[in-house]
Amino acid sequence: MYSIAGLSDTSETSVTTGLTLLPSLRSAYIPFPLLYGAAMDGSCLVWESKCETRGNCWLYDLDKLRYSYFGTSITFLSLAVVFATGVAFVASDIRDFYDDGYQEVYSSEDPKIRYKKRDPVRIFEEHDQGRFKV
Predict the structure, then answer these.
(1) Model confidence at 84, in pLDDT bands (50, 70, 90)?
(2) Could you report the per-residue pLDDT of 88-130, keeping only the tens digit for each?
(3) Are residues 9 and 50 in the same domain?
(4) Pair 69, 110 in one domain
(5) Which of 40, 55, 57, 80 is a Cys-bridge partner for 48, taking CB atoms 3.0 to 4.6 Å apart?
(6) Confidence of residue 2 (pLDDT cuts 50, 70, 90)
(7) Which H helix or E strand runs over 120?
(8) Residue 112, domain member (yes or no)
(9) What pTM was computed for the model?
(10) Do 109 and 127 belong together in one domain?
(11) Residue 80: inside a domain
(12) For residues 133 and 104, is the Cβ–Cβ distance under 8 A?
């Protein structure tokens, strides 16, 4: 969120922040209350009824409520563990995340550090073979 807000003008910061939060709101904050509500409504035994409309639940099947509530929580936590494990496996392939393609070159005549642009094809081949060296 901060990187996107830092790239935009100061007048567009609120719009950028809103657009950044939109995917998390759509994927997390909206479906989960609906899913937990459905799990709780599924364990209701006695519903209030007024004028042919269903009202609040008066009596829950506690065993069914317990299993549906904690089962939903365990399902979401298991999915989180699966995705976190996947990210850990993918992130283990990153060798040098901050490589900018330059290599330090020392000279015995000139003690200053100079930088030489590296060949991008060679960098890709070293990453591909798993023996990346700066």
Answers:
(1) very high
(2) 888 777 766 666 555 555 556 665 555 555 655 555 555 555 5
(3) no
(4) no
(5) 55
(6) very low
(7) helix 120-129
(8) yes
(9) 0.51
(10) yes
(11) yes
(12) no
- Report the DSSP pairing between strands 53-60 and 44-50: antiparallel
Whether residue 36 is contained in a domain is answered as: no
- Reduced to 3 states (helix: H, G, I; strand: E, B; else coil), residue 115 is strand
User: For residue 80, which amino acid is it?
Assistant: A
Residue with tokens 């709101």: 25
Give the pairing of strands 114-117 and 102-105.
antiparallel
Q: Which domain holds residue 128?
A: 97-134
Tell whether 54 and 86 lie within a shared domain.
Answer: yes
- Cα distances from 105 to residues 68, 71, 100, 102, 126, in angstroms, run 63, 59, 15, 9, 19
Backbone angles phi, psi at 49, to 5 degrees: -135, 130
Structure tokens at 13: 């910061």
Q: Specify the residue for token string 């549906």.
A: 68
Question: What is the token pair recorded at 8?
Answer: 């935009």
